Amino acid sequence: MPISVEADILSSRADTVIEPAVLSNETLTKMYRDMVLIRRVEESLLELAESGKIGGAMHTAIGHEGTAVGMAAALQPDDYLTCTYRGHHHSLARGMDPKRAIAEVLGKADGFAKGKGGSMHFLDPSLGLMGANGIVGAQVPHAAGMALASKIRGEGRIAITFFGDGALYQGVMHETFNMSQRWLLPIIFYCENNRYSEMTPIGRTSSVRDIYMFARAYGMHSLQIDANDVEVVYAAVTQAAERARAGDGPTFIEGITYRLAGHMAGDLETYRSPDEIEAQRAHEPLVVLQRRLLDRGADEKTLAEIRAEVEAEVAEAVEFAQNSPWPHPAETYTDVFAL
Ligand SMILES: Cc1ncc(C[n+]2csc(CCOP(=O)(O)OP(=O)(O)O)c2C)c(N)n1
Ligand SMILES: [Mg+2]
Q1: CATH architecture of 14-324
Q2: Span from the CA of 134 to the centroid of ligand 1 (angstroms)
């Protein structure tokens, strides 16, 4: 029997209210393009998975695009980033080439990790992407280590780490929150609360309703935001980054969003109803941004042109990736250790 999640679980606590940024139409149009690109890449990957072209598990972030694009616009391009197995969107928003991203998921030689990492191990240190992780919570202490290194070396770079609502109940999370706050590390803890941990709705996982309150137990500044609104995400991450760079330590952001596709490719989604998903579509990041752009005077024709351009770009990237060769078997023994 599917269990419905509430359509709106934003808390009414006054101390979490954040003023959204009001960005120019030019910036918002660019963000719209980036979000459409991420959506189309993810949808194409699902199609490729359905036709049996992807080995191993693949998790998309369809519905989480506002988080990735708002974050990328608010941070410096070399700030450290770690994330989960659900990390295509962060990497694309930070500028990863869709051709190399898709080739990687297909296990092809032109992938950014020569096809050896796949969907669950997105990374590119030249873009500050220090690695995705298949172990729930493991990427979080890694980012704290990077923040500590940056502080000791005086690099001026901050770290951001993304994790899900289900990760909060891993012990290592709490050890990391405690130490990071005690040492005032330049780090942002960003929880993508998509209301589900695999097939389990959030209400079954914990009695704590407002996840951002966990951070308060460690004396950490924390807030809860509507992560389907890219201007809100941008404002929250900008503010958190300013605090980190000023030496004021970590911020915990709970971004409320919704996963519109299954937990992973092939998920039959028997644990939720089609009506629940349909209700969430009215407030998904692309719909919110498109409505805002039209309200602020953008014309539908320009947005349609953007969608058509992106469609062609992603189709070309899929073709490139499919035509890319398989890695040479000898590659099995390279890149195994870093000295
Ligand atoms: C330590 C550990 N325990 C269990 C799993 C199996 N697992 C993979 S994804 C997942 C759900 C995590 O949910 P959440 O943190 O909300 O992230 P989401 O998938 O919703 O983005 C679980 C339990 C795992 N990968 N690692
Ligand atoms: Mg989740």
Answers
A1: 3-Layer(aba) Sandwich (3.40)
A2: 8
